[in-house]
Design brief:
The structure holds 2 protein chains of 2 kinds. By secondary structure, chain A is mainly α. Chain A contains 5 helices and no strands. In chain A, helix 1 packs antiparallel against helix 5 and helix 2 packs antiparallel against helix 4. The radius of gyration of chain A is 17 Å and the shape is elongated. The chains are: A mainly alpha, B mainly alpha. Chain A: Keywords: Membrane, Transmembrane, Transmembrane helix.
Chain lengths: ~150, ~170
C-alpha cells in the first residue's frame, strides 16, 4: 500500500469515527429540554463535513486499491463473509450516512432560528439516533473487514 | 517514542481518566445526594467530573481506532477478531448507549450508574488481560454478573448513607 493510500485510509477511519462521536454529542444535547442550538448546529455541520471527507477518501481507496488488492485476499481467507456480507452491506449503508448528516445539520440550523419547535427537536433527535446506529454498524463492519485479511 | 507507544500512552490516559472519573462521579453523587438535595456547587462538581469522564471516553475511542489502523497497516490483524477485543468494543458501545438512555431519562439511575461503573472497570480489565482463552459469551456472562454485583453493592451503600426522610 502506498503512503497516499495509507493516509486516505487513516482519514477515512478517523474522520468517520469523530463524525459518529459528534452525532453522539448532538443526540445527547437534543435530548435536553433546552439545548444550545448554536453549539448543536455547528457540531452537526462539522459531522456532515467529516462524513463527506470520510466518504470521498474511502471511495478512492475502494476503487483504486481494495477491489484489486484486499478483496481477493479476504475471499481466499477463512472469513470470506467479511466481504460478501459485511463489506457489501457497509458500502451500501454508508451511502446513506452523509445524507442523514446533511438532514440533521439542516434541522439543527432551523432549530437555531426556531428553538421552541419541540416536535422538530424530537424528530431530529430520532434521526440522529438512526444516523448513530448506522454509523456504529458501519464502523463495526469496517473492523470485521480489516480483521479478516 | 514510536507512534505505537504514543497510542498506548493515549489509551492508558483515556482509561485512567475514564475509570477515575466514573469512580469519583459515583462517590460524589452518592455523597452529595445523601440529603436528597443537589446544590449548585455540587452540580458544578459533578459536571466537571462528567466532562473528565467524556474526555477519557473520547481519548479511549480515538486511540482504540488508532490501534486498529496501526494493526491494519502493519498487517497484524489477528487482534481484531479476538473475543476480548469484541467484548471490549461491545462494552464501550454499552457505555455510550447507557449515557444516552440516562440523558433521555429512560434508564433508572440506580441501574445506569451500576452499568457505567462496571463497564469502565470491565474495559480496564479486558485491556490489561489482553488475549484470553475465554469465549465472547463467557466474558459477557462475567460482565453481567459483575454489573449485578456492583448494582447490589451501590444500593447497599446508598441505603446506608441516605439521610432519614422523616424525624
Amino acid at each position: 500500500m502506498t503512503t497516499t493510500l495509507a493516509a486516505l485510509l487513516i482519514v477515512h477511519v478517523l474522520g468517520g469515527i469523530i463524525a459518529i462521536g459528534m452525532h453522539n454529542v448532538v443526540l445527547m444535547h437534543l435530548l435536553k429540554k433546552a439545548p444550545n442550538y448554536v453549539f448543536v448546529s455547528r457540531l452537526a455541520w462539522s459531522a456532515f463535513v467529516l462524513f463527506i471527507l470520510s466518504w470521498a477518501t474511502s471511495a478512492y481507496y475502494y476503487v483504486t486499491y481494495y477491489g484489486s488488492a484486499v478483496k481477493p485476499r479476504i475471499l481466499a481467507g477463512s472469513l470470506p463473509f467479511a466481504h460478501t456480507f459485511f463489506m457489501e452491506t457497509k458500502e451500501h449503508i454508508f451511502l446513506v450516512l452523509p445524507f442523514l448528516a446533511l438532514s440533521i445539520a439542516l434541522c439543527t440550523t432551523y432549530l437555531r432560528m426556531n428553538p421552541d419547535d419541540d416536535n422538530l427537536r424530537k424528530g431530529t433527535a430520532f434521526l440522529t439516533l438512526v444516523a448513530l446506529v448506522v454509523g456504529v454498524v458501519t464502523a463495526a463492519s469496517g473492523i470485521i473487514v480489516s480483521g479478516s485479511i | 517514542m514510536t507512534l505505537y507507544e504514543s497510542f498506548i500512552i493515549m489509551h492508558v490516559v483515556g482509561t485512567v481518566l475514564g475509570v477515575g472519573a466514573a469512580t469519583f462521579a459515583e462517590i460524589y453523587y452518592t455523597r452529595f445526594n445523601s440529603d436528597n438535595i443537589l446544590t449548585d456547587d455540587e452540580r458544578r462538581t459533578l459536571a466537571v467530573t462528567y466532562t473528565v469522564l467524556r474526555t477519557g471516553l473520547f481519548l479511549l475511542v480515538i486511540s482504540g481506532f488508532a490501534f486498529l489502523l496501526y494493526f491494519r497497516l502493519t498487517e497484524h490483524v489477528g487482534a481484531l477478531t479476538s473475543p476480548s477485543f469484541w467484548a471490549k468494543m461491545t462494552i464501550i458501545g454499552i457505555l455510550v448507549g447507557n449515557a444516552l438512555l440516562l440523558q433521555a431519562r429512560i434508564m433508572p439511575l440506580a441501574i445506569g450508574s451500576a452499568i457505567s461503573l462496571t463497564s469502565w472497570y470491565a474495559a480496564l480489565v479486558l485491556g490489561v488481560i489482553g488475549k484470553t482463552d475465554a469465549t465472547y459469551g463467557e466474558l459477557f456472562m462475567y460482565y453481567a454478573l459483575a454489573t449485578l454485583l456492583v448494582g447490589v453493592i451501590l444500593r447497599w451503600i446508598r441505603t446506608r448513607l441516605h439521610a432519614p426522610t422523616t424525624i
